[in-house]
Amino acid sequence: MWTEALPIVVYSTCTEVAVPAAAWPRLYGSLQALKGHVQEYPGCQRFDVFFRAQPEESVRVHCYTTWDTLAQLEAFLERGYTFERLLADVGGDISLERSLVMEKVF
Questions:
Q1: How far does Cα 42 stand from its chain's mean position?
Q2: Could you give the CA distance from residue 58 to residue 68 in angstroms, rounded to a whole number?
Q3: For the segment 42-98, what is each residue's pLDDT rounded down to a tens digit?
Q4: Which pTM value belongs to this model?
């Protein structure tokens, strides 16, 4: 008899920004501190940052967080210190391009 296993689901955010090259060192240091902070939140599995230098003297940054449950992700988005909140505090010419909430099924 065959049985089917339910999919394993985790909940994630994805934020993409373009950062002027001059602002990158300050943002990078702030991201290191943010990663250490967010990883202490209950249910946070991962905090990943990917970046790519771009020809127009800017840096493209993708920031992902991954959570055990939807409730933990929602609490983080409502009350936590998110990448978007960090960007508002850092200020400057950083442009938020998109922010998504997603489910990962594997």
A1: 16
A2: 33
A3: 999 999 999 999 988 999 999 999 999 999 999 999 999 999 999 999 888 888 899
A4: 0.86
Residues 28, 45: Cα–Cα separation, whole Å: 21
91 vs 106: CA distance, rounded Å: 37
**Residue 79: both structure tokens together:** 């009350």
Residue 53 CA from chain centroid, whole number: 18
Q: DSSP characters for the chain?
A: ----PPPPEEEEEEEEEEEEGGGHHHHHHHHHHHHHHHTTSTTEEEEEEEEEEETTTEEEEEEEEEESSHHHHHHHHHHS--HHHHHHHH-SS-EEEEEEEEEEE-
3-6, Cβ contacts within 8 angstroms, sequence gap of 24 or more: none
